[in-house]
Amino acid sequence: MPSIDIIVPKSAPRRWQEIVVARLQAEGHDIAVVHESGSNAWPVAINTALALERKIFRRRDPALAAPLSEIPASSRDSSAVLRLDLTGHAAPSDVPTITLRFGGSRSDLSVARSVAAGALPVIDAVLDGKTVVGRAWPMIDRREAVSLGAEDVLARAVTLAVSTVRAFAENRLVMNEPVSKVSENAVSRTLGFASACMTGALPRLGREAMRRARFRHAHWRVGYRFIDGPGVASSCELGDGWSVLPDAGDRFYADPFPFQWQDRFFLFVEDYSHATGKAVISVVAFDATGKPGEPRCVLEEPYHLSYPQVFERDGAIWMLPEASSGGKLVLYRSIEFPDRWAPEAVLIEGEISDATLLEHGGQLWLFATNRDGYGSTSDTLVVFHAPRLAGPWTPHVLNPVLIDRRMARPGGAFVREGSSIYLPVQDGTLGYGGGLGISQLLELDEKTVRLSPPRPIAARGDWPYPKIHTLNRSGRLEVIDGIAAVRK
């Protein structure tokens, strides 16, 4: 492991910077913590405003933007081969230096202003102030709350800093492009934050409060159709012929996965109860005329379940539902299809979301997102591979493969068309459930993962809920879901 100097503010460092130091130490790097004496403190008014907002939203955990009394300095005997500057303005050095830029700014304070204004900051990892060697497009889940949005962005600052240092240590940094610069001063940043809050954040918060007073926070509906020939994945538009899976309003159905078995069609869904705030997995059986029966629960755990990917392999039928709130990805075997399932193996530990299976190149692969401890569940793509379904599952050497709200989170099973492989991916640019795209898998092996930029799925057609986030098909049965405005 290389010797690294991590440069942090001497006064009023932030918690996200402390976490970067702790994670790199945990990975075994030879760390020295160096203080930068310049002023890096956020204005008291901004710290107070963010802390008050977190109290309103009942967030009791320490914020990543929270100021600390200090991050203790430490030293070592050997000289550094890399510097990680977490202040943004360390003195020049002959030692290679990685710095983070937030929307072009060297100051992490710009995150608060950008989020307040409704912007979606991009974070660059910059080598020696000249070249971008890593980039993150963080997902912001709660855009009406500046403190929570800033938390999402700073969470991915941690992810990007640690992964860029890891890439440097493994000699696989990729030079991207020249860096752009933004000039800011402390006064304009403070005034800019206040102005952005008054004209952006507060009106958004008011609109969201009014919406939640009248409507369910989220209510998804599943669409289905029976078609011959190409579907949504080929045309990249929704088209016509959709029917809505009925619900009573006190629960919703989402994340549909169809499965054809013994000439019958079954649809597995996330079945979410508004009363309990937790989902189970239910199945819908279609009759010979294509009419759906009543959903019935087939799998329940103490924690939330969703994304019930069902598939056949090795002479058995399996389910791989998402259970990130349970902290593990569990594989289930069908004992009596479609109603009885038994846990077979824990494949991966951690907050893994929407793990999607692919067989390719003589191996099995899982594409998923990993929350990485903080921030959103929808912006950090990780890949695992294994020789067999039960594992062992090995993390890809490039993990995290990308940090990108536009295409990190899978939105359905892989699609094969001839020799090409495609993956539906969620686009969080407009928020969670804002839309889907189709990315082509361009290259995949134990050293490389490469996906094309997603082609957006157009909402043209008769489906009434254009904000979709899942697409699947089995035989003639194609399914989607969309978020609906449902009154309380």
Structure notes:
Residues 251-446 form the Glucosamine inositolphosphorylceramide transferase 1 N-terminal domain. The structure is a single chain. By secondary structure, the protein is an alpha+beta fold. The chain folds into 2 domains: 3-213, Rossmann fold (3-Layer(aba) Sandwich), CATH 3.40.50; 218-483, Glycosyl hydrolase domain, family 43 (Tachylectin-2, Chain A), CATH 2.115.10.20. 19% of the residues lie in helices and 39% in strands. It contains 6 helices and 31 strands. Strands 1, 2, 3, 4, 5, 6, 7, 19, 20, 21, 22 and 23 form a 12-stranded mixed β-sheet that branches. A hairpin with a 4-residue loop joins strand 26 (436-444) and strand 27. Helix 1 (15-26) packs parallel to helix 4 and helix 3 (109-117) crosses helix 5 (186-214). The longest helix has 29 residues, at 186-214. Residues 183-188 have low confidence and may be disordered.
Descriptors:
39% strand; 5-stranded antiparallel β-sheet; 12-stranded mixed β-sheet; 488 residues; Rossmann fold; 2 domains; Tachylectin-2, Chain A; alpha+beta; 6 helices
Layout: helices, strands, pairs:
Layout: E1 3-9, H1 15-26, E2 30-36, H2 44-56, E3 82-85, E4 97-102, H3 109-117, E5 123-127, E6 131-137, H4 146-169, E7 177-178, H5 186-214, E8 220-226, H6 232-235, E9 237-239, E10 243-244, E11 251-261, E12 264-273, E13 278-285, E14 296-299, E15 306-313, E16 316-322, E17 328-336, E18 340-349, E19 352-360, E20 363-370, E21 380-386, E22 394-395, E23 402-404, E24 415-417, E25 420-426, E26 436-444, E27 449-451, E28 455-456, E29 458-461, E30 468-474, E31 477-483
Parallel strand pairs: 1-2, 1-3, 3-4, 6-23, 9-29
Antiparallel strand pairs: 4-5, 5-6, 6-7, 8-10, 8-31, 11-12, 12-13, 13-14, 15-16, 16-17, 17-18, 19-20, 20-21, 21-22, 21-23, 24-25, 25-26, 26-27, 26-28, 30-31
